[in-house]
Amino acid sequence: MKEIAILGYQQSDSRSDAGAVNEVEMIMPVLERTFAQVGINNAQDVDFVCSGSCDYLQGAAFAFVAGVDALGAVPPIKESHVEMDAAWALHESMLKIRMGHADSALIYGFGKSSPGELPIVLSQQLDPYYLAPLWVDTISLAAMQARMMLDQGLITERDMAEVVSRSRRNAMNNPHAQLSGDVSVDDVLAQDTYVSPLRKGDCCPVSDGASAVVIATVEKAKEWGVPYALISGISHAIETHNMGMRDITDSVSTRIAAERAGMNAGKVDVAQLYAPFSHQEIILTRALGLGDETSINPSGGVLAGNLMMASGLSNIGEVFNRIVSGEAERGIAHATSGPCLQHNLVTVLETAEKA
Amino acid sequence: MSQPEILNQAFELGYTYTRSTGPVVGRFLTGLKNRKLVGIKASDGRVIVPPMEYDPDTAEELSEFVDVGEQGEIVTFAWVKEPREAHPMNEPFAWAMIKLDGADVPMIHCVAAKSEGHVTSGARVRAVWADETIGFMTDIRCFELV
Questions:
Q1: Which among A56, A66, A60, A65 is positioned nearest to A24, based on CA atoms?
Q2: Which residues of chain B have pLDDT under 50?
Q3: Which chain A residues are Cβ-neighbours of B9 within 8 angstroms?
Q4: CATH architecture label of A4-117+206-229
Q5: In-domain check, residue B3
Q6: Domain extents for chain A?
Q7: Is residue B12 part of a domain?
Q8: Which of A151, A195, A240 sits opposite B80 (nearest CB)?
Q9: Residue A138 in contact with residue A117, Cβ under 8 Å?
Q10: Structural domain tally of chain B?
Q11: Does B106 touch chain A (CB under 8 A)?
């Protein structure tokens, strides 16, 4: 089986409101920078393109097709799309390469969440008969999850505030972050509750933006002559849509995905975890058995800026950045979808420098 | 540079078809219309409310219906201080996972209460029916503390 490498990653700033900038205008600068990083001219220079976005954010069917305008798809290109975070578009692209149908792929994800009321828009991903008609929002679902953990003594509000404080401080080194600053645990705890027991700080912000990644076979990466990291494993798993039948204090599907992706075959220097709510980072860290030797969310994670349909892809890119910089040798990137961590994808990345 | 003017146009989404809810979801929704709550037995015997068509663990097709009570217990809850426009209540309220009497799996619905301090995990609640029931999830207007 051909080894696959990641050799480029760029992200836009995470902005609370991109104003009149449309999706194509959000994507194009990110693609330009990605092409320059890898040393290619445009989408014609890769064998396959796959994107991730959500029509519900734009409120129109097939809205994602407009995103293709950012590529310049003439002459025709091989192109696909997932109505999921673009981390799953990267998964599809890897399958395309492994089947021998491509040697290189461009993946991009984008989301302009600001025009709608995101927590309510996301209520429409729930069971269409039993939950969607109630308009139960994502923040309230996460708040019920957090309360269950607090009631069972699995976490404290201070544990949650520590996650927020570390995110804000880590994000000070992330030029694209939306929320960053020298925020202490006590600063977070001093906030009033929002959707109780959650404080605003426990919840990811609503963000607009895009990110892009280029992957290729190792042969192709060497031909292009740019630094790269190896993608040694990728897998995803999903739990039932009935939240009452899940153990929402754990993330069984994340653990299964990590095992299948081969996470446990070596040490994990860095982990980028897609935790839209502070307590969910604790769930994920525990589900994966990560300890002090692992740097968790050095970018600040999605508490510092949550690009719907792109932040999962960005997590893969953030781990790639730290491997090619020599900061880490091996790491994992996580992406999630659905309410309260229903569906999870884990990617394992490793340095190409090892003998 | 000033922001360009953003053009707006009202749009009403409508569908030109209806669809059947089938023998499981349909049975539950018909039950609501008659102010009755019904669950279904999972492969391992647990009673799921509202009923599911297939067991999430075994994928077995489920068909054994069980009547459950209209009272139950709060498993966990979220307190909404500022209800959103789409929410089913205009005053501060709780979303809760509620395990009905006779059920093993909690369901999600809203709970009316005076303040957050009145709601606790473990509290007993009772379904409040809408004035007119039509076979929708919203036939249960909310739950109230017993």
A1: A66
A2: none
A3: none
A4: 3-Layer(aba) Sandwich (3.40)
A5: no
A6: 4-117+206-229
A7: no
A8: A195
A9: no
A10: 1
A11: yes
